[in-house]
Design brief:
alpha+beta, 4 helices, 17% helix, globular
Length: 162
């Protein structure tokens, strides 16, 4: 599958609406922890202050307390799973892997993967999620070091088999 009708937001995150799958976040708050939200001065790798009690303890099983009125950056963010890629078990809070498509100067569009907990990309469920979604999207995968959200701090680079 190739990316069609892509729209890129200010942060370089790609949204693809061609998949035709409707999903909602449910109790997944992975992006509320990993991503930076400039509108509310939330740094990356820091649980958002809008998360309901319990998510701060490293549990990715709560929800946003202001979901209906959440910041624009949150409304505009779509992980690969939310866009319809992968299976139900690939949801970030289940697989431990948060993935989105980003545009890089070196590789063009890439599937940017982040471990939600240490070693998630090395565990069988995380590996399956990365393999499944990257094959569906036919993109190079960049797996970020869990200690740094910067794309320059890549732990692994693998080419997706075509």
């Amino acid at each position: 599958m190739s990316l069609l009708n892509i729209a890129v937001n200010e942060e370089g995150i790609v949204k693809n609406f061609d998949k035709g799958v409707t999903r909602d976040c449910g109790n997944c708050v992975s992006c509320c922890i990993w991503t930076e939200i400039k509108e509310i001065n939330k740094p990356p790798l820091t649980p958002c202050h809008n998360l309901k009690e319990g998510a701060v303890e490293g549990k990715i099983c709560q929800s946003c307390s202001v979901y209906k009125d959440r910041p624009g950056a949150c409304k505009d963010y779509f992980c690969a799973w939310l866009m319809g890629y992968g299976e139900d078990e690939d949801q970030p809070n289940k697989s431990g892997i948060l993935m989105d498509v980003q545009i890089t100067s070196e590789y063009g569009p890439v599937l940017f993967s982040r471990d939600m907990w240490q070693g998630a990309s090395e565990m069988s469920m995380g590996k399956r999620a990365i393999e499944r979604i990257s094959e569906e999207m036919n993109l190079i995968v960049l797996i970020a070091d869990e200690k740094s959200p910067q794309i320059r701090r890549i732990k692994k680079l693998m080419e997706v088999k075509k």
